[in-house]
Amino acid sequence: MIYSLKGTLIHRTPSFVVIDVGGVGYKCSTSLMTIRDLPDIGKETTIYTHMAVREDDIELFGFSTQEERECFKMLTSVSGVGAKVGMAILSEFTSEQVAVCIASDDPKSLTKASGVGNKLAQRIVLELKDKVKKLGTGSSGVKLPTGNAAAAALGNVKNAMDALAVLGYDSGDIMPIISKFDSSLKVEELIHLTLLELGKDKGA
Prior knowledge:
Order of helices and strands: EEEHEEHHHHHHHH
Number of strands: 5
């Protein structure tokens, strides 16, 4: 099993990249999030990999963080979520945002990803809610506490999203913003910070 690749980025497309490691070019299917994180062509980089072995094919998937790789593996463990759908979700959301969607019982936001309908989104949330605590978080992502603090913090996120929905905001627009903040903040603070960001987006 190939855990990671460290080499020179020699080619990129919207769906895969090629990393040259010691003269061997490794093709890795990637998400748009990973592609955005990678350096310019000709620069050295490290990507974390997952190899999928099927009867008629072997495919290597690459991720800019270990958290994104683990999120991909969790998503594709759900019945009906293949590699294509998993990558579509991670092209739309960071691993931390996926975690917020699942932990706050918000399947609607996941339907923004290509190939994810309402039923599949609900299945993802249902099957992964107990596992989402295994997801790591990056330095820029939402922090998901554990134990009793987790229930309170995730409740704060859900309550804040519910309140913003009452104000007419769509959960799909709110979730990417609210997931940037510390989920242990009070509901009022989460609402206030989210509204400030929404105001910036509108040029307020």
